[in-house]
Design a protein that fits this description.
The complex is a heterodimer of chains A (133) and B (292). With 133 residues, chain A is mainly beta. Chain A contains one helix and ten strands, in the order ββββββββαββ. Classes of the chains: A mainly beta (133), B alpha/beta (292).
Chain lengths: 133, 292
């Protein structure tokens, strides 16, 4: 599980869903959609300290940073280490919000020729991020 | 409303244990007592029913004092408006289903309740049969109906479904909820089945070694309401295997075995037999209708 600490900077509510922005640091804000509202979850408060969690397998890696793509969370990172398996491989990333792990298919690793010290963009869809207080 | 404060020294397999329980149960609530064997759950029910005497304490139900050790008030089980269902059905084997119910009538009580209960728990077809010809689930339905003959205010259920298979259990749960609502009962259930507890109860009291260790809303107790993931289950780790760059953790959730891909950081403190919360977002699972 990739875990980062931050503070809630914005909450947009519609019926029982909320789009929550969590400021991780000065550069990066992560967005997540949750089936909670400030009424059902006491931790949904502006400036509240929370943790954001997402699975390593949900991190998408791109070698370009100006993609027009339907993923809102984009984080700049450098590949620190590559652990290559037969079908799956693990990337240890040094990102602008801290260390992050991405699991991806080894075929893709080869296709994109991902290697240590390469600069990439790590992306996570809003519906893949969980909040924990 | 049940307000009870019970003290009782119990002799257990591990020596003496002090049962010290305080309950505040609102009228019409469905409450579960949960905890390991020997924590005092059954003793609590038996003291409420008057089948076991407390060393000291008070039990007040709807402003009526059932027990007050200081004032030497102690209602007999018959004086307490209680229905009690145990794990074994304890039906009279020589009587038909209908006779078993009729036998529970009080002197001079209106007999129409018998037909009403037979209708509610759907015993019409079975009413002339003897208990031994019925399945476990059917016998437990009769036991449930019998516990309601005297129109109790409080229904005590001591693991009534633990001997039944899953399908029968789900059906009986529905009957219990139906009578609980229809008769405005205050119900106290002893159960170990987390799914059953979340389905049925408004409030849960967790008992450990004679004391209440936790109390609250069942889904908040069994799931992690500090986490926004809506797809949450509690389960038990049954296997951890490393494969390539990930770990595959096998978890038993109820009667289902699920597998979860995990990273080293998630499994460092994890061992076989550990209880875990399995969480995902409500956005990820898909639904497939099972054809009848």
């Amino acid at each position: 599980m990739n875990t980062f600490s931050g503070h809630i900077s914005d909450i947009q509510v519609n019926e029982s869903l909320s789009m929550v922005s969590v400021r991780i640091n000065e550069q990066v804000e992560l967005k997540t959609i949750v089936v909670e509202t400030p009424e059902t979850a006491s931790y949904l408060k502006i400036e509240n300290a929370v943790e954001v969690l997402f699975k390593e397998t949900e991190v998408i890696i791109s070698t370009e940073d100006t993609l027009s793509i339907s993923i809102q969370n984009k984080i700049k990172a450098t590949i620190k280490e590559v652990k290559k398996g037969v079908l799956l491989s693990k990337l240890l990333l040094n990102s602008e919000i801290g260390e992050m792990i991405a699991i991806l298919a080894t075929e893709v690793l080869d296709e994109l020729m991902l290697a240590e010290n390469q600069e990439v963009t790590a992306m996570i869809k809003v519906n893949e991020i969980m909040i924990s207080r | 409303m049940i307000e009870a404060h019970i003290h009782k020294t119990l002799s257990t397999a591990n020596g003496k244990m002090l049962l010290d329980i305080q309950l505040n149960i609102k009228k019409g609530q469905f409450v579960t007592l949960y905890g390991p064997s020997g924590a005092g759950k059954t003793s609590t029910l038996r003291i409420l029913a008057g089948l076991l005497s407390a060393d000291k304490g008070q039990i007040v139900v709807d402003d009526k004092v059932w027990l007050d050790s200081k004032k030497k008030i102690n209602f007999s089980p018959q004086q307490r408006k209680i229905g009690y269902v145990f794990q074994d059905y304890a039906l009279f084997p020589n009587m038909t289903v209908r006779r078993n119910l009729e036998f529970a009538l009080e002197k001079g009580q209106d007999r129409s309740i018998i037909q009403e209960l037979i209708t509610i728990v759907e015993l019409e077809e079975l009413q002339d049969r003897k208990p031994e010809t019925l399945s476990g689930g059917q016998q437990q339905r009769v036991a449930l109906a019998r516990a309601l003959v005297r129109k109790p205010e409080v229904l005590l259920l001591d693991e009534p479904l633990s001997a039944l298979d899953i399908k029968m259990r789900a059906k009986l749960q529905d009957y219990i909820l139906k009578v609980h609502r229809q008769y405005g009962l205050t119900t106290i259930l002893v159960s170990h089945d987390v799914g059953e507890i979340i389905k049925m109860s408004d409030e849960i009291y967790c008992l450990e070694a004679g004391k209440i260790s936790k109390q609250g809303n069942p889904s908040a107790i069994f799931t992690n309401d500090r986490l926004s993931g809506k797809f949450q289950f509690t389960g038990e780790v049954i296997a951890i295997e490393q494969e390539e760059v990930v770990y595959i953790v096998t978890v038993l959730i109820g009667n289902n075995v699920v597998k979860i891909i995990a990273q080293e950081s998630e499994i460092t403190d994890l061992g076989i037999g550990d209880k875990v919360i399995v969480a995902s977002k409500a956005f990820n699972p898909i639904l497939l209708k099972i054809e009848k």
